[in-house]
Design a protein that fits this description.
Low-confidence stretches: none
Number of domains: 2
Structural class: mainly alpha
Shape: elongated
Radius of gyration: 19 Å
Order of helices and strands: HHHHHHHHH
Distance between the termini: 63 Å
Oligomer: single chain
Length: 199
């Protein structure tokens, strides 16, 4: 069966994304098979191919779903933050990022070294995130809340590199830094780009 009776295609897709995330974390990208992911979700492999033409694209959607959940936890619906506030929140929460999403992305990065198709799909996905962040930073510059002496694209690349580096710190299980010290440091870094409030 491609679908479970009484379950919508959207629900099937969600089940497959969650099953894929668990399977990729447990078996790695290369070790995870489409058949195993389908079994984990309780469907046939046909259900996977109805939504994703390749395993690489399924992995990227699993990463995207977990990333969006982590972002939603930082910024609940109805929350509006300026660019500096977003940077502080994201930076402050780097040590707290979802362990599963981090493990999944780290596995994808490692597998991308050996799989050109996955590397391309992953690069496009991360590039999209970087462009969204650059757009947010540019908006802050246009609104005058962030200085315009640093190109938004360069700052977004730096933020991406810091975020990816945090995956390695988690994977190596380095001892955590003091929470207050980390928050103060992030505020200081972001503060260097924020335009002081005249009030």
């Amino acid at each position: 069966m491609a679908r479970i009776a009484g379950v919508t295609p959207e629900q099937t897709r969600g089940r497959l994304i969650d099953a894929a995330a668990r399977t990729f974390e447990r078996r790695g990208y290369e070790g995870a098979t489409v058949a195993e992911i389908a079994r984990e979700a309780g469907v046939t492999t046909g259900a996977i191919y109805a939504h994703w033409p390749t395993k690489a694209e399924l992995l990227v959607d699993a990463l995207r779903a977990h990333g969006e959940r982590a972002t939603a936890a930082l910024f609940p619906p109805g929350t509006h933050e300026d660019a500096a506030g977003v940077l502080v929140a994201l930076g402050t929460h780097l040590p707290d990022r979802d362990r599963h999403a981090g493990a999944l992305l780290l596995e994808a990065l490692l597998a991308a070294r050996r799989d050109p198709e996955l590397a391309g799909v992953l690069a496009a996905s991360l590039g999209d995130r970087e462009r969204l962040l650059a757009a947010l930073l540019l908006e802050g510059q246009v609104q005058g809340t962030l200085t315009d002496d640093v190109p938004a694209a360069a700052a977004a690349r730096f933020a991406l590199m810091v975020g990816l580096g945090s995956l390695l710190v988690r994977a190596l299980e380095l001892p955590p830094t003091d929470r207050d010290d980390w928050t103060a440091f992030i505020r200081r870094v972001v503060g260097a780009f924020a335009v002081p409030d005249p009030t």
